[in-house]
């Protein structure tokens, strides 16, 4: 709390003194990235328009704190630096982007429905490959000296958790855990990640209208760079947001397969609303909790409908395996066994043992007990059930034991693993 108080005081001082009021200028940031890299130009420049839209939303809508402005600038320059490094590596080794990404498996579904837990379980198979947090932030070693990327990212995460200590239980962070794909596409500034960490409605509207085909082309390019460094394996990729861009996924990865996770939406909406609030807290001066709740219902009602539509498409039916949250938590080994059987994969004794050990050594998927009120986000369980009625019926969604507390003036407690 002391760290949070210092950050708040610093923000008040910056606001009073006028520091941090200068707008983000894309040309200046691009020039600085080029200067730092020693390169003269970017290769593929399709990211420039998304960057301009994001920076405009930062200036006009996000109400960034001084921490938020510093973080946005750092994150933007880091991403641009990675793009320039990709250009450099591809000039040296053009075969990087000629490699195939074969038969990837994409985990998607409602957020907080077991996607991260399942991703972690599948990463225990030595034949599988997942992007790790440290690789998503720094896909290549930093220039000069020994490779300290893991240590550097752990330090960054510890600093962030000092600002939002409640996040430890709700969404554990570590440099060496699997990372979801929003952080890959964020590096070309075409990612829903920005709408979770900031209030940027104009950017989100632009993103939805523009589509994400270019983002997924870069997604593949990112994986090709990781694959070039350590060899080809079966990629396991995860993001609840994939459901909004399945056509783009299939255009880039025509042999993709999918795992759809399912859970009681009344739990899901409350949990994602709380996570959004915590992620925004260090960066934004004003947080509208009820607006977060409304947007969560709106966005994920659409997502649930897309899960329904995709499941009914004959072209996808044989490529989708449905994972029930409660079965996943109750029998993680059996769930993975069923996934492998569906897709004709070998479930070895070694993988079975590694998954069992992972579950034993990380109870509840590393998640703690969390208590908060759904009412703070304006959430009502009956309203949520109404919005998700077709989804719950179609997939025979079982009600979470704690969901009955949501919205009735009582504390809502999360149970078992979350994501």
Shape: globular
Tell me the name of the CATH homologous superfamily: P-loop containing nucleotide triphosphate hydrolases
Radius of gyration: 21 Å
Give me the number of helical elements: 21
CATH class: Alpha Beta
Q: Outline of this structure?
A:
The chain is an alpha/beta fold and 419 residues long. The protein contains 21 helices and seven strands. The chain has a single domain, classed as P-loop containing nucleotide triphosphate hydrolases (Rossmann fold, 3-Layer(aba) Sandwich).
Characterization of the model:
By secondary structure, this protein is α/β, with parallel strands linked by helices. It has a single domain (2-413), classed as P-loop containing nucleotide triphosphate hydrolases (Rossmann fold, 3-Layer(aba) Sandwich). Helix 3 (48-60) runs antiparallel to helix 11 and helix 12 (213-230) packs across helix 13. The protein has helices at residues 2-17, 26-37, 48-60, 66-92, 115-122, 133-137, 149-163, 167-170, 182-185, 193-197, 201-210, 213-230, 246-252, 265-280, 289-312, 314-317, 325-330, 332-343, 349-361, 381-387, 389-394, and strands spanning 105-109, 128-129, 234-238, 257-262, 320-324, 371-372, 412-413. It is globular and about 55 Å long.
